[in-house]
Design a protein that fits this description.
alpha/beta, Nucleotidyltransferase, domain 5, 22% strand, 50% helix, 200 residues
Length: 200
Amino acid sequence: MSEAAALGFRTHSGWAAAVAVSGSPRKPVVLERRRFEIADPDVPGSKQPYHAAEKLDVESAEALIARCRESSTLLALGAMSKLVAQLAKDDVTVVGAGILFASERSLPNIAAILRSHELMHTAEGEFSREVLVAAAEQCALPVSRVKEREIWDRATSLFRLPVADLQARIDALGKTLGPPWRQDEKLASLAAWIALAESG
């Protein structure tokens, strides 16, 4: 019988920290840690498509953002499929993906976004996260959307462990891998741990 694992992601403009976690709800184990590149260097503006589209007319802006979304989704899908396939060779079945989100505020249309620098930054973040959601769905992985500011409360409720205990366990996970084990990897691993627990 294969071992179950979940993937966890924390995104940035053009890339994401990716972690694969297996084990039990009480004793998670990190199997893999990677950086997913999701900005296509052959598509100008793909690292920050809304900023790249700022000076364009609405129709051209929509076309650029759509092109960036398509190329970034393909990159994310390729990286995710490769990781899932590699884990399968070790008899590990990926059963879900935990993706860190911001507040998930609803965004207006592209024209309104491009008129606001603040909204452009929010849209860039949503763009990266939704690219990973689309890739996970194409890999047939259930997605756990985890709001970053609520992640410790959600984990405390799910695992019935105090925050200090959870943080100590997450910190300890990185010791088996060595550096880097930054906030990106820590939060991505906790998102994966949550997705793994919720998959069962």
